[in-house]
Amino acid sequence: MTRTALGAPATPIPTGRSQRSSAVSVLLSHWTGSGTVPSLTLYPHQWSWDSAFIAIGLRRLSPYRAQRELETLCGAQWGDGRIPHIVFNPAVPPGAYFPGPAFWRSGQAGAAAGAPAGIDTSGIVQPPVHALAAWLVHESDPELSRRRGFLARLYPRLAAWHGYLADHRDLGGQGLAAVVHPWESGMDNSPCWDGPLARVEPAPTGSFRRADLTHGAAADRPTDEDYGRYVGLAARYRDQHYRDTAASHPFAVEDPAFNAFLAVSEHALASIAQSLGRSPVPHRARAGALTEALVARLWDPQSGQFLCRDLVPDALVAERSVSGLLPLAVPGLPDPVVRALLDTLSGPHFDLGAGSTGLVPSYDLLGGAHDASRYWRGPAWFNVNWTLERGLRQYGARAAADRLAGAILTTATASGFAEYVDARTGQALGSRDFGWTAAMALDVLARS
Question: Which residues are known to be catalytic?
Answer without folding.
Answer: 188, 419
